[in-house]
Fold this sequence. Notes:
Elements: H1 2-6, H2 9-16, H3 23-54, H4 58-62, H5 72-82
Amino acid sequence: MFRSLKNKPDAVVELIQGYQMIKEQKECILIIRSHLEFIEKSIADLDRKLDKMVAQYEGAIKLPCTIPRVDRTSAITIISEIGTGMSH
């Protein structure tokens, strides 16, 4: 729900128009928002680290991506499980 409303501020304003939040509710929302931002930053940091780790395997990653419905993430998972020796 948060992700779908995150990019639709007008929809959020419309939903809460006329609703009065108490101080504690506002504080909870700020805590939740801060936590969400922390998680999103952590995911972005992890994605950057993973991209650096797999950079040397880009050639091998491209091969499984030629299979229908296998995206880059799936290809990285496959390579991490079976390795780069795909001669079999």
